[in-house]
Structure to design on (352 residues):
């Protein structure tokens, strides 16, 4: 495992970068800042190593004003996605959160663990695994409970990156972690992802309310809508259709309901004809959010690449957004002393 300097955070604390590599030359780079996946690369069908996630060359770029809200590759917690009106009720008490997306809370607030330095907890060369740890104090970002969270990345010989989360709190709270990688299977620097194909193992999605992007509570079958990815379809094929859900979100920014019974199962696949790179996403979470970088503005990323709108797609495994206010969905509440555990796997295959 390579361990190198990755720059500093806003207080001058050093950030490290760990590189995992397997026998095939597949690589994953993980930064202690936000426990983020900075790079995930495998050989394409011509033997060229392709990095398929968007990111930056140094820690400082992850903290700059323009990029903070993108969460490139970051571990998001304690709660991924939105909480309506930035308030959560736990054990009869209301907790005010930061309203950082209109009147709602998004990804737990602007100074969450996605932008903090995590501590290297366990570096296991033999298993090609790096585990990072972070402590969040009671009422930090408004959430109750002193919480210890861990995330580990393990790169296996079959080119799968296993991401495992664990969290424990001393008070009842919420726990709903995700990884916010933006994939571009043509290479992170290859532009629009519109012609890459996607399949999602979900028969229904949760429509959003206009303007707030909060699920209405409805469970809508994907059949007959542009959100039907039950068979492989180009991401861009119907993205510009005159369908109110796509207009509200400026593209795909929707949660799909998975049918995995809480066990790790295939949630989505994506493929790029030019490189032959094929992504398999597995999770034990009840939902996956497809986000097509609808709000990413033109700016510089890794190695001088220019990133912009639709230059990546995210498959964020998580609970349904705002499920804490919608008891008909599985809710993200965690009891004091109990352990939250969840797993997501991103595997890179090759179509020839
Ligand atoms: C959300 C988007 C948001 C993006 C970047 C996604 O998880 O669903 O609405 O723009 O993250 O913050």
């Amino acid at each position: 495992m390579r361990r190198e300097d990755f720059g500093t955070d806003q207080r001058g604390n050093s950030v490290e970068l760990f590189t995992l590599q397997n026998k095939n030359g597949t690589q994953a780079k993980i930064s202690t800042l936000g426990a983020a996946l900075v790079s995930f690369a495998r050989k394409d069908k011509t033997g060229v190593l392709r990095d398929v996630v968007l990111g930056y060359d140094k820690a400082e770029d992850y903290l700059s004003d323009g990029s903070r809200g993108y969460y490139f590759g970051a571990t998001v917690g304690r709660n991924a996605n939105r909480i309506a009106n930035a308030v959560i009720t736990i054990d009869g008490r209301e907790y005010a959160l930061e309203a950082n997306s209109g009147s709602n809370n998004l990804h737990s607030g602007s100074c969450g663990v996605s932008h903090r330095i995590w501590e290297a907890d366990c570096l296991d060369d033999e298993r090609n695994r790096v585990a990072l740890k972070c402590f969040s104090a009671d009422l930090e970002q408004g959430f109750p409970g002193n919480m210890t969270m861990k995330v580990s990345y393990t790169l296996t010989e079959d080119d799968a990156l296993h991401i495992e989360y664990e969290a424990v709190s001393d008070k009842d709270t919420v726990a709903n972690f995700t990884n916010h990688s933006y994939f571009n299977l043509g290479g992170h620097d290859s532009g629009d992802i519109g012609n890459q194909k996607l399949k999602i193992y979900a028969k229904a999605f949760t429509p959003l309310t206009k303007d707030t992007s909060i699920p209405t509570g409805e469970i809508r079958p994907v059949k007959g809508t542009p959100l039907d990815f039950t068979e492989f379809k180009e991401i861009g094929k119907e993205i510009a259709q005159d369908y109110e859900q796509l207009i509200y979100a400026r593209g795909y920014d929707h949660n799909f309901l998975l049918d995995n019974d809480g066990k790790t199962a295939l949630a989505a696949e994506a493929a790029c004809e030019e490189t032959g790179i094929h992504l398999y996403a597995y999770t034990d979470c009840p939902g996956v959010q497809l986000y097509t970088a609808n709000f990413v503005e033109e700016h510089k990323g890794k190695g001088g690449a220019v990133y912009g709108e639709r230059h990546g797609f995210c498959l964020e495994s998580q609970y349904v957004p705002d499920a804490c206010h919608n008891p008909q969905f599985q809710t993200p509440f965690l009891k004091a002393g109990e352990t939250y555990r969840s797993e997501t796997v991103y595997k890179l295959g090759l179509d020839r």
